[in-house]
Amino acid sequence: MEKIIEIQDILETEKYLDGIKAVIFDLDDTLYPEKDYVRSGFHAVAECFPGIKDMANKLWLAFETGERPIDTVLMKEDRYSQENIEKALRIYRFHKPDISLYPGVKDLLERIRSNWKIGIITDGRPDGQRAKLEALGLDQKVDEVIITDELGGAEFRKPCDVAFKIMRERMDVPFCQMMYVGDNLKKDFAAPQKLGMRAVFFCNLNGMYSREE
Question: Are 32 and 136 within 8 A, CB to CB?
């Protein structure tokens, strides 16, 4: 709740609102906690391997220690095979996620949308990102969504600026009247700053990559 209030406070100041016509958001760790998606995926995988006791927690522990969770757990449980690896990855990538928006985000988006256009630019595998958007109900709460991988592959992920240029065309708003809100200092802000957009850094201390930053 505290971090979302910080975003609201920033957007409510005249400094950031003056002249803005469109607010573009990152998705993962900006509108919802990405770790919840990881946990959800681990539970989905564990359900398909009933012979491995407490598999979801074992996957999470491996994840927290920086290992490759699926490979590590299947290896330790003597269930490692290419078939099982592919099965687990397929389940993880295509599962229906059990995730929720950060507290306050729904009201924030509704308030913004009453005055400005709202978009999302997000990286990741299209199937997984689309499943997240559907689970969060964001497909009904924003005007435009761009999943960068759908533009032609991983090379279009941020900090590539192509998605931002496409968003500008779709919204018919000049860059100087667009704002981007994200949580990743390494990739979220290079393109917006290059293109002359305004930018807001969501300092999410509980995010997936907060330690790196």
Answer: yes
